[in-house]
Amino acid sequence: QLQLQESGPGLVKPSETLSLSCTVSGGSISSSTYYWGWIRQPPGKGPEWIGSIYYSGSTYYNPTLKSRVSVSVDTSKNQLSLKLSSVTAADTAVYYCATANYYFEYWGQGTLVTVSS
Amino acid sequence: EIVLTQSPDFQSVTPKEKVTITCRASQSIGSSLHWYQQKPGQSPKLLIKYASQPFSGVPSRFSGSGSGTDFTLTINSLEAEDGATYYCQQSSGVPATFGQGTKVEIK
């Protein structure tokens, strides 16, 4: 059974870069079985897909965030990473990592990131 | 971007009642529609994939139907543990998008 766990700062200042990691256990991030993705959910709102990556390194981003987003994998650590630059208060949300093969099967518990000075 | 609109936004239901939630897509998406349940403080959980295929371990009272632009999630004989917000999500177009959610409250 795959398990995913997000980690990173809970508070980021406006205009700075949000950086999160997701550690995968119970399976290899290098497996061809899954795409890996990031989803966020602002307080009281529905989820929003941010981007996904395949073990080969192919990436897919939400066009509304594409200019600010980078998703990568570190196979040596079995980790997925997210970087979101030039953040504003609108980027305040719970950020989830998940398997992302068209639907989102396995999810992490999520981590709240607040953008505030 | 494909927009998904769910109805109703909120429903207050008595245990054992039948619940029906609809999801309408702004353009045809075939069967590329998935349903999730989210309880407060938890991550969403996959219930139904590709409109009508139950995900592993999901109780049989949950079912999905539809294709094209109109989809339905049905909960037969609602149980107290089913109080949650339900979301639809499409994978036909990029970006993947979610509906705004339907909150089901147990009376």
Describe this structure as you would to a colleague.
The complex is a heterodimer of chains A (117) and B (107). Chain A has 117 residues and is mainly beta. In chain A, 0% of the residues lie in helices and 48% in strands. Chain A contains no helices and 10 strands. Chain A has a 6-stranded mixed beta sheet, with no helix packed on it. Chain A starts with a strand and ends with a strand. The mean pLDDT of chain A is 96. With 107 residues, chain B is an all-beta fold. Helix content of chain B is 0%, strand content 50%. Chain B contains no helices and 11 strands. Chain B has strands at 4-7, 10-13, 19-25, 33-38, 45-49, 53-54, 62-67, 70-75, 84-90, 97-98, 102-106. In chain B, strands 2, 4, 5, 6, 9, 10 and 11 form a 7-stranded mixed beta sheet that branches. A 4-stranded antiparallel beta sheet of chain B has the order 1-3-8-7, with no helix packed on it. In chain B, a hairpin with a 2-residue loop joins strand 7 (62-67) and strand 8 (70-75). Chain B is globular and about 35 Å long. Chains A and B meet through loops of A and strand 5 and strand 10 of B.
